[in-house]
Write a structure and sequence with these properties.
The chain is α+β, with helices and mostly antiparallel strands. Helix content is 34%, strand content 12%. The protein is built from eleven helices and twelve strands. The strands form four sheets. It has a four-stranded antiparallel β-sheet with strand order 3-6-12-7. A four-stranded mixed β-sheet has the order 10-9-8-11. The protein has a two-stranded antiparallel ribbon with strand order 1-2. Strand 1 and strand 2 form a beta hairpin. It is globular, with a radius of gyration of 34 Å.
Length: 386
């Protein structure tokens, strides 16, 4: 018998029959899983629509904008909204960006006054903007000029003068047996003091200035078709201290440690040195707001010149009652408000970044001024500010 021929014929038959059976199986399987195939097809179709929607978010966004106003952000009936175009937070004039960070808030040296109100506590502060100088007489004059022209019919002249106008008599009233008459007469009115920090302004007036500044800024932005900006405000105590340290987390003074004079003996701030030699730093009273070297954030006079209002209500136990993220004590029933930084009349202890003090919110002093802050929306790498 020819077994070789039979084997070859059988092998040839298998090579023909098996592929046929395999094809029928595939065809049959496709028929049985028709529903699954349809579902898969829907999935691919949906993905295709997703790609169209994605294009709608990007290159084809003009088609989206050309549709009805209520349909903006919708493409083919699907939500395809991304970030609205045109938003960029610009740095306001005269402000600098203070980067976010975490630090040990509180006294950076011994508590020589034994106040026990500035214990150390780790806090974290988000990014924000801050004026590089204290608000000057000429900047504040823009505010009072508008108040006396545009708001006099609403607020009344008496209220404006009593609450929002700087009290120039503080130069005489704050100190017994002191001849403050020249400062009373000229400090806010003369061009000689235009670039000096405004004083005689209460915490209430400082906040109202921030509201006015916000309105003026956003009225312009709106008229130019831009999005509104976050509001101007007073800095929180935690923000103020973080900014004062200039990126030096444990700095005793805004310029670092541990002295109030440089290697040549030149004083680094305007304050009361040498047991009362007010003139030793070059200024018997206040100095220009941009005098002396700025700290590493570019902020001038974060120590001395004038103490500065903060947003916080004052509390001896603020360490215990405040949170550790964007810390603030917003007790509206507490009339005492935090002041920081020390002034031209203070000894060096009050210039320290961790020293706390307060004044009543409606009081006006010849040694207290302020500067504004503003939230920075979102968190950035900081590269766009370089």
């Amino acid at each position: 018998m020819n077994y070789g021929g039979i084997f070859r014929k059988s092998l040839l038959l298998l090579l023909v029959v098996i592929p046929v059976l395999f094809l029928e199986s595939c065809s049959s399987g496709g028929s049985k899983s028709k529903g699954k195939s349809t579902a898969s097809s829907k999935g691919r179709s949906s993905k295709g629509k997703g790609e169209v929607a994605s294009k709608g978010k990007g290159k084809n966004s003009k088609n989206s904008r050309s549709s009805k106003k209520e349909d903006v952000g919708m493409v083919n009936g699907e939500v395809a909204a991304t970030a609205r175009k045109g938003w960029k937070q610009t740095t306001p004039l005269g402000m600098v960006l203070i980067t976010s960070g975490s630090y040990m808030m509180g006294q950076a040296d011994e508590d020589v006054a034994s106040t026990s109100v500035s214990f150390n506590k780790r806090v974290t502060v988000a990014q924000f903007y801050m004026d590089d100088t204290e608000i000057t007489n000429n900047e504040y004059r823009q505010f009072t000029s508008v108040m006396m022209t545009d708001s006099i019919s609403v607020l009344g002249e008496e209220k404006i003068l009593a609450e929002y106008y700087p009290d120039t008599t503080v130069w005489s009233k704050d100190f017994t047996y002191h001849n403050g008459d020249p400062m009373t007469e000229y400090y806010f009115s003369s061009p000689a003091f235009d670039m000096y920090p405004v004083v005689g302004v209460s915490w209430v007036a400082a906040r109202y200035f921030c509201e006015w500044r916000t309105k003026a800024y956003n009225d312009y932005r709106t008229s130019e078709g831009m999005y509104i900006s976050p509001r101007f405000r007073l800095p929180s105590e935690a923000e103020w201290e973080w900014a004062a340290r200039g990126g030096k987390a444990s700095a005793k003074y805004p310029w670092g440690n541990p002295y109030v004079a440089n290697g040549k003996g030149c004083l680094l701030a305007n304050f009361k040195p040498h047991r009362g030699n007010y003139d030793a730093d070059g200024y018997a009273y206040t100095a220009p707001a941009n005098q002396f070297n700025p700290n590493d954030y570019g902020l001038y006079n974060m120590a001395g010149n004038v103490a500065e209002w903060c947003l916080d209500a004052y509390a001896d136990n603020s360490v215990a009652i405040t949170w550790d993220l964007n810390t603030i004590n917003d007790d509206k029933d507490e009339p005492r408000k935090v002041i920081r930084g020390g002034s031209w009349k203070d000894v060096a202890y009050y210039l320290e970044t961790g020293t706390r003090s307060y004044e009543y919110e409606n009081k006006k002093r010849s040694y207290i001024g302020f500067r504004c802050a503003m939230n920075h929306l979102g968190r950035s790498s900081g590269k766009e500010f370089k």
